Amino acid sequence: MPAHTVRPLAPDDAAAYRALRLAGIAELPAAFCTTHAAESGLPLAQIAQRLQTTPYQIIFGTFKGEQLIAMAGLRREPIAVVHDKASLWGVYVAPQARGQGIGRQLLRAAIAHANSIPDLARLRLAVAQDNHAALTLYLACGFVLADEAASHGMLKMQLVLPRPAIATTQSNVFMKINTLQFLAK
Q1: Do strands 85-93 and 122-128 pair parallel, antiparallel, or not at all (unpaired)?
Q2: Which of 53, 82, 143, 147 could form a disulfide with 157 if both were Cys (CB 3.0 to 4.6 A apart)?
Q3: Crossing angle of helices 132-140/102-115, nearest 10°?
Q4: pTM over cut 0.90
Q5: In angstroms, rounded to a whole number, what is the distance separating the alpha carbons of residues 156 and 145?
Q6: What CATH number does residue 133 fall under?
């Protein structure tokens, strides 16, 4: 049996997920889009519901034996116009588990899941610009800085998923529009 197991979290993992998420928020409050008070006030049933895998969201966890030591969420956009994008969120590795490749293993599982969704073309995330360990991990997993400017100390990163090129009439129209030149007044 491998020392670490990565799997989708389920509603039965709610207590362990809550404990690890609260530890992450306490350690790195700027890295989470919530507060310790707000998160700790959520009923366990609501957290269990968050862990229910849907076509639009899945949360992975890494376990050492029975202990949850890392987590990462993947949320796909349900709106048709942007359904080709998903966000990686809530990534956290417990301090005692760092430096062992666990974060990379967790991200690989999330990226593999994203690659299994045919219409998904891009993963996005936000990371604190002073979180050098996370930046190094994301860069090692293929993420690059997005064109968007940093805001509130957060950098935007993205990973373009490998997809086969499909020639369509629509893409030819875009190619023609992109080659038009307009005269300056």
Answers
A1: parallel
A2: 143
A3: 50
A4: no
A5: 6
A6: 3.40.630.30
